[in-house]
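Tokens for chain A. Residues wanted.
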């Protein structure tokens, strides 16, 4: 750990002293409504219908029917959400919002009940202003937050998209926190989508406020719009995690304005970035090929990975971009994305992803489903505006367990202020005798290798315990010369098959070194 511990900052963490667990700041401060532990998947009508007459009760019921009939529900799509223009321009005598009786003759509660009857969830829209964004002047929720939240709850709403129009210059945090509090008091769990367009950098403040926040303006169904949203969103990985997601806007897949390769890039990059997968096309008109994109379970699995890590950019040179995403089982997802107008070869290595050393790696192409092996090179000839997606698995090599997946004793944090680490951070345990970092790993194994940095001038000795029994006492982690210089310490052992805990415990008041990962080497075949 750093000699002077960082008490606050982007990588700081809060301690759950009662349990001894530590969560990173973004996790500890996230909105505690228990919802959207993975990014939301579903539908929103706006991109395909806006406020045209075919946006109505019949259409939305038909979308719910298609979710079931076409297998979208089976692969994880859950929310059927309606957007602007569902209400009358005026509230009733009691100040309540009134559904448009032409569009929704049976009301919103009946529609929500229908959606729920399909085993799905229902979402609605309003704005954090006096009116919504449509020029017809539909009423917004500014000054009516609790009344509207209670009404939505009484209708059975499961998801609220809260827009930013006609906000009267009221501070964004004030407006969005007011609705957060109203939803919390409504008596119903309602996922909360902040649609503030990224104007006040909501990623810096919205984790305790909403489950997701728009990082961009509205998307449109063309390559230039879509890729600009990806470019704006891809540098914000540190702010995303279970229950709180960066949102580069809805999917255009199937609306007809892009090529099949561009739509695959769109869907693939959204999945890599752990973005919401909200279908914006009229599913009654979508082609079979586009359904195949939307239902690709290998790509969906990247988006819905329970670790909840947004991909980071390994390299971006002249429009040739390499993304890497850490997955819960130790695999990596790699996207080779060509933003240029010509076919190009894009390359990286397994080592660059931080997956750990292995004699070979398995690459599964998530679009073609082809599987091949590599000694470490990851490369493809990528057509213009296309993206090759690989799931990378170590074949017979060490399994890597990142420090950000470990449990830390009270006072420890997962930090990212010293460059060169694997994954998205490293464990910075407390400066104290007995402070520890613990992983849960799977055997059988023959060795444990710890990635670490020690920028002090003295070794940081630790005891290494497996399943509560010390197997190596006083193991030294020597100085590495700087906190940004990373090295390894390896200990041989015989770890049987099954699940085990591996705990590294400091034996001096300096605490352990900064720990980046634990590699578990399997038994030789």
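Reply:
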């Amino acid at each position: 750990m750093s000699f002077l511990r960082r008490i606050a900052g982007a990588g700081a963490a809060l301690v759950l002293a009662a349990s001894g667990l530590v969560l990173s700041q973004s996790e500890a401060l996230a909105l505690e409504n228990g919802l959207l532990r993975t990014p939301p998947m579903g539908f929103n009508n706006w991109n395909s219908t806006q406020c045209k007459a075919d946006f109505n009760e019949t259409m939305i019921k038909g979308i719910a029917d298609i979710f079931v009939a076409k297998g979208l529900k089976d692969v994880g799509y859950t929310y059927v959400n309606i957007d602007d223009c569902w209400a009358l321009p005026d509230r009733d005598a009691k100040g309540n919002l009134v559904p448009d009786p032409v569009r929704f003759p049976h009301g919103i509660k009946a529609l929500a009940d229908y959606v729920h009857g399909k085993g799905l969830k229902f979402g609605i829209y309003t704005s954090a202003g006096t009116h919504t964004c449509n020029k017809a002047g539909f009423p917004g929720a500014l000054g009516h937050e609790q009344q509207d939240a209670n009404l939505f709850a009484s209708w059975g709403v499961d998801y609220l998209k809260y827009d930013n129009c006609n906000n009267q210059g009221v501070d964004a945090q004030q407006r969005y926190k007011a609705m957060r509090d109203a939803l919390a008091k409504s008596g119903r769990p309602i996922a909360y989508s902040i649609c503030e367009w990224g104007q006040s950098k909501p990623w810096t403040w919205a984790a305790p406020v909403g489950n997701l926040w728009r990082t961009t303006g509205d998307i449109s169904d063309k390559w230039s719009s879509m890729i600009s949203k990806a470019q704006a969103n891809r540098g914000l990985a540190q702010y995303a995690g279970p229950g709180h997601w960066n949102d580069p806007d809805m999917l255009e897949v199937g609306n007809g304005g892009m090529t099949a390769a561009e739509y695959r890039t769109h869907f693939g990059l959204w999945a890599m970035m752990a973005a919401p997968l909200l279908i914006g096309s009229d599913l009654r008109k979508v082609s079979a090929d586009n359904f195949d994109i939307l239902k690709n379970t290998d790509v969906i699995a990247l988006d819905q990975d329970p670790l909840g890590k947004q991909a980071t950019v390994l390299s971006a040179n002249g429009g040739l971009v390499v993304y890497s995403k850490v997955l819960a089982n130790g695999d990596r997802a790699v996207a080779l994305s060509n933003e240029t107008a010509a076919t190009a070869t894009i390359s990286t290595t397994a080592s660059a992803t931080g997956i750990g050393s292995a004699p070979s790696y398995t690459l599964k192409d998530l679009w073609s489903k082809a599987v091949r092996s590599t000694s470490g090179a990851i490369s493809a000839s990528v057509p213009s505006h296309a993206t090759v997606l690989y799931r990378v698995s170590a074949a017979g090599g060490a399994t890597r367990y990142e420090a950000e997946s470990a449990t830390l004793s009270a006072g420890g944090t997962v930090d990212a202020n010293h460059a060169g680490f694997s994954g998205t951070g490293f464990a910075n345990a407390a400066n104290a005798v007995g402070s520890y970092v613990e992983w849960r790993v799977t055997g059988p194994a023959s060795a444990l290798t710890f990635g670490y940095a020690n920028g002090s001038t003295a070794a940081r000795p630790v005891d290494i315990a497996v399943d509560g029994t010390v197997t190596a006492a006083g193991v030294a982690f020597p100085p590495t010369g700087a906190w940004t210089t990373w090295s390894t310490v390896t200990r041989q052992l015989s770890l049987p098959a099954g699940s085990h805990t591996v705990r590294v415990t400091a034996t001096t008041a300096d605490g352990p070194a900064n720990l980046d990962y634990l590699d578990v080497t399997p038994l030789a075949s």
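The domain at 13-27+399-521 is CATH 2.60.120.260 (Jelly Rolls). The radius of gyration is 25 Å.
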